[in-house]
Prior knowledge:
By secondary structure, the protein is an all-alpha fold. It folds into 2 domains: 1-58, Orthogonal Bundle (Arc Repressor Mutant, subunit A); 68-207, Tetracycline Repressor, domain 2 (Orthogonal Bundle), CATH 1.10.357.10. 77% of the residues lie in helices and 0% in strands. Helix 5 (61-82) packs antiparallel against helix 6, helix 5 (61-82) runs parallel beside helix 8 (124-151) and helix 7 crosses helix 8. The longest helix has 28 residues, at 124-151. The radius of gyration is 21 Å and the shape is elongated. It starts with a helix and ends with a helix. The model is unreliable at 1-11 (pLDDT under 50).
Amino acid sequence: MPSxxxxxxxxxxxxxxxxxxxxxxxxxxxxxxxxxxISVQRxxxxxxxxxxxxxAHFRDKTALIIRLSGALRERLLELARxxxxxxxxxxxxxxxxxxxxxxxxxxxxxxxxxxxxEVATYDSTVRGFHTADLEEFDDAVLRTxxxxxxxxxxxxxxxxxxxxxVIVWGGxxxxxxxxxxxxxxxxxxxxxxxxxIWWYGAYRRPADDNVSKESRS
Length: 217
């Protein structure tokens, strides 16, 4: 029975106590506290809830960081799923706008994402959750590349699996590094360059003439 009740709460949205705990944890992170150094007691004091209330909603701090980053994960995945390379507009420009949105979300939620990466270095559950995000992005990009190849818009010689891996996993590292070293004034330029690199480096790169000749022979 308890598991059913908890499932209903999650389906209907977080309870008031759960929201208090999530908001309190995010406040602590935004103050510069490292997630690994924040004790459950510290969270209880910030959220003004009891230990029993905390454990009624979260198994442990691992479950808490996963829940805290869950909504963010969905927002980013929705952006990726909505991106259509065959929409008719210049893809590099649309990609640039896409990356501006992605960077904005990352900046607004930097402390939470940093905590997720921090815990992922030693916790296999969180690492799997974090990796699953990138794998979903990878799958989404791979599908669009294959569809574009089938339509003839993307060269047949492109290795779609390798390209999607470079685009997503390499792009993720590039965005994280950019946010780390840039104060935000370079976000538009970074998004524009990343958009052009992805679009003209994969989706609309010139076909390899040698490969084209071999395929015709």
